[in-house]
Amino acid sequence: MSTTQMDPAPAQSDDADIRALLRNSLDTVLARHYSFEQRRDARENEARESQAAWAAYAELGLLALTLPAGHGGLPVSLADLAMVVEAMGGAMVLEPYAPAMVAARLLSAAGSEDQQAAWLPAICRGEVRVILAHEEANGGYAKPIAASATPDPHGWRLSGRKSAVAGGDTADLFIVSANTANGVALFLVPAADLAIRPARSFDWTGTADLMLDDVIIPTSARLTGGEAALAAALDEAAALACADAVGAIRAANALTRAHTSTRRQFGRSLDAFQVLQHRLVDMTIAQELAAPITAAAIAACAAATPAERARAVSAAKVKVGEAARYVGEQCVQLHGGMGLVQEYPAAHLFARLSLFELSHGGRDYHLERYAELVL
Amino acid sequence: MYTAREQAFAEEVRAFVRSECSEDVRRKVFEAVAVTAQERLAWHKALHARGWAAPHWPAEHGGTGWSPVETYIFSETLAEEGAPDLGSFGLKMLGPTLMQYGTPEQKAYYLPRILSGEDIWCQGFSEPGAGSDLASLKTRAVLDGDHWVVNGQKMWTTMAHESNMMFALVRTDPDAPKPQMGISMLLIDLKTPGVDIRPIILLNGERTTNEVFFDNVRVPAENLVGEPHKGWTYSRVVLGNERLSIARIGLNRRQLARLKRIAAQQGLTTSPLFRARIAEASIELDALEAMATAMLDRARAGVAPGIEANMLKIKGSELQQRLTRLLVEAAGRSAAPFGPGAADPDRPWLARLFKSHFDTRVVSIYGGSNEIQRNIIAKSLGFGASR
What we know:
The complex is a heterodimer of chains A (375) and B (387). Chain A is of the alpha+beta class.
């Protein structure tokens, strides 16, 4: 079993200016590419995402964030990356930015020098999209992994199935988790070598099932790192998903406030009714609880021990999950029928927040893991 | 909760559904697949042939003459067995309203056509600016000779695209001292020139609801229900119908069964946390059913349901939402793929779970939102009356 740890990025940028600059350019890119109408059009084009936006992310260096400078990366902090992910959650981007960054970071933490040199520069330039394929249909979230890798005269033979892999429909390269006789291992597999069933999720982001039917891959496809690196990547993925959800929660609250201040019934604006004021206050409290606990989880991913990291991430996933559910549902409820239509953002935010709750381990998984750590 | 005689009746109804409603259609209902208009009409005709299309109607109009309790047992058994909903607009809302307030000609013409399924009705109440505050509606009708000329817009008009008739609230007296007093109810043939039905597409890609525009639509004067300017009173009667089945016990039972089935398939029936949450939902349903039973007992004694019906609407809708949320939780991220071609051939039901979760968000919004229901209860209990 490998004991490789992910190389933690510094928790804070040395230069606050970098972060402000990043934030500015990011806002510009999202404003240019992610109006509600552009998002709808992007979903309807052939790639079912915005290729222009992806190119803009690459040009801005967003696809290189936190990756090693020696391979074309921009070594900023994980908190900087989380800030970007949060903004993308608010804009409900369709491209799998966070999943691709998690996988690229896993490659930089668990890949050999040769593997990194072979792939990371193209990943940073946006030419190759790498995605971690881990979750399985009935296997729960973290373990056990049912997919198996057995030695073969030509290298390894992979079999099993990966389910609803976020971004799997557009990936060029996968990092696939599988069980070997000696524990969990990770393998780099080009998408072209796999049977993939692509689909859209109900929030319009892309997903895919991977059928690993005795896929033969060379020995050199195996990453150096294994179970520990995977565990760190899964926690990062969950923490970054929390950041995405915080962005969507902020957007849902802003949308709901705008609606309730302009919609009039019974001769006054909706936000003049005390019962709705209290609802809006609770939505705001949920947001204010979700943001700092997400920041704490991100910080723990960057610096803490595996147990502290797991505890912080599970705590965040549970609390942000509660906030996502409450805000998503109330955003729809306070919009009335308008909250359900395709031509208005409320239902889309509800869908994104619902999918967040189901992903990266549900509430029960994280409650149980947290209980194991504190009891 | 049922007497032996009522139980025997429930079994008779159950047997009828199983023999007369196609297996295919019932499976669709169980698995939350949309039933087509044709399939719904076929079931309507089967019920009509048996004399059961409108059990809650008095026998003189083609109903069964059943007691409220029998009617309740009938509708909940249908829901449990996966019979498709016939739609409430004609049978449950307009029909009883016409019986009470319609002219003899309206009763003679429309009631048999509702019963047989020849006319399919939709309800034109809500407007872009009039949702919870329905009395602020703006669609105008002006008398011109022997026609009302209608101009304006209705919104959230469920099933308008599958209907040929609409009962609509329109403003006939803009100068009335109170907005409620200037409203009339009109019966509008949707094929009349000037009617434009446009789809509203929901996030799930489905068209179940519409906007309906009226541009100088001429409606025969005899299509005004009852008296002019009394439409508000009639609409309260319309919305007050179907009170006994408001908790949707049968539907919730069906969803609970679906949840248990999917939890078992996902290996979750051994998870203590998930078991507890199924148990909580099941207990909530037991509690609702006990409350509905108490209401039935009062109905047997001739007492019409009061605010307990509003309470059951709130709690029944919340339980529907809880059950469908648990359904997607049971599947986890596997429930993500959605839309044409997304279904996993081994587990096709996965791709429908989010649809159920999404669709039930509307049950706390329509038919008087849960906020409005709570206002009604608060007022009825006299809260704030001493100020």
